Amino acid sequence: MTGRDRICPKTVGTAPGSAVIRRDTALPAEPPGRRTATASFFLAAFCAILALAPAALALEITVPTRSGMTVEVLVEVPRDAPALILLFEGGRGILAPGSTGFAHRAHRHFLQKGIGSALVGAPVDVTGLNGGLSPWSRETPKHIADIDSVIATLRRYYKLPIWVLGVSNGSRSAAAYAMRRSDRIGGVVLVSSSTLPPNGDPIHTLPRLRAVTVPVLAVAHEDDGCQGSPPSGATEIAKAAIASPDAAAIFFSGGLNTGRAPCGNETHHTLYGIEGQVVSAIAEFITAHPASDTQ
Questions:
Q1: Which domain holds residue 112?
Q2: Is 5 domain-assigned?
């Protein structure tokens, strides 16, 4: 199967409630203006552009999930990408242009490594954490259903193994999904994980983590100053994932620590200033564990 065949399937249905796609221009330095198109029109234009240029395409997709609910996804996939990784930001989990959060900054680094990347926003009905996802809402059946819908939509356009990555509070989204849907993903990456939260259970103590059957990579900064994500938590996660074919922990040092709060952006907690180094290690782990494109 060629890279184009993996991204441009032979047929794509257009049913009521199908995703709305915006941005079908070549990848720019900054997001361009928006315009909407039906899924069928998008696919034709997408594949025509793909045939002419090797650049990734920047797309914003509004995915319908539960009744009346939607989730925004910003996705870019280079030609011949070996995998597509879903990124769940920490904090409120919302898409914020110009954000210095790890997931937002890592997004473009994954593209530079040739791996498709999709930033997944919070659903429109969440209000638990200043208008975003609360830590406990990230483990609910509703949130899992939302991610199911996002993955199902992306599979219509990209026939690639899908990984999930979460940072800080976002690690609860990625972990919760991997614990319940190992059969639908190629692997999971947990960054600055919630292993000592002020409320709720630490990720590494959740019984379902022991049943995850895909590769698990836990990432931490040696000097993470956030009380809820001690660096030692990465090792605990790797030890707990006993059913995984490869569960590993990796640690980093250096970077910048200029943020105002130890659990906020631009700190060691979000591996600020070394995102490229971190993504390189994650990309190497992903490519070392190829999975079927029908995963």
A1: 59-287
A2: no
